Amino acid sequence: MPTAEKDHVYKILELVGSSETSIDDAIKNAIGRAAKTIRDMKWFEVVQTRGHIENGAVRHYQVTLRVGFTLES
């Protein structure tokens, strides 16, 4: 008997987002830009966080993400 469950195959894409404001904004910038050309993104994982320091203050945030999306059938 068939089940309602679907088998999914995901492609993983690596993105790097940046922001002068926050790590959260860097994530949102990467996902938002990718969403313009990539369909069916399902999840993300932050794999690296970096920043730039200038005169003793954080000036720039950079986040590397792994994003999974469903392959079309």
Describe the structure.
The structure is a single chain. With 73 residues, the chain is an alpha+beta fold. The chain has a single domain (10-70), classed as Flavin-binding protein dodecin (Dodecin subunit-like). Helix content is 16%, strand content 52%. A three-stranded antiparallel sheet has the order 1-3-2. The protein is elongated.
At a glance:
By secondary structure, this protein is an alpha+beta fold. The protein has one helix at 23-34; strands at residues 10-19, 41-54, 57-70. InterPro entries: Dodecin, Dodecin-like, Dodecin-like_sf, Dodecin_bact.
Helix and strand topology:
Layout: E1 10-19, H1 23-34, E2 41-54, E3 57-70
Antiparallel strand pairs: 1-3, 2-3
The proportion of residues forming helix, as a percent range, comes to 10-25%
The gross shape turns out to be elongated
Tally of separate helices? 1
Termini separation (Å)?
22 Å
Cα radius of gyration in angstroms? 16 Å
Tally of distinct domains: 1
InterPro entries: Dodecin, Dodecin-like, Dodecin-like_sf, Dodecin_bact
Organism: Bradyrhizobium centrolobii
Protein name: Dodecin flavoprotein
Pfam families: Dodecin (PF07311)
Features:
73 residues; alpha+beta; Dodecin subunit-like; three-stranded antiparallel β-sheet; 1 helix; 3 strands
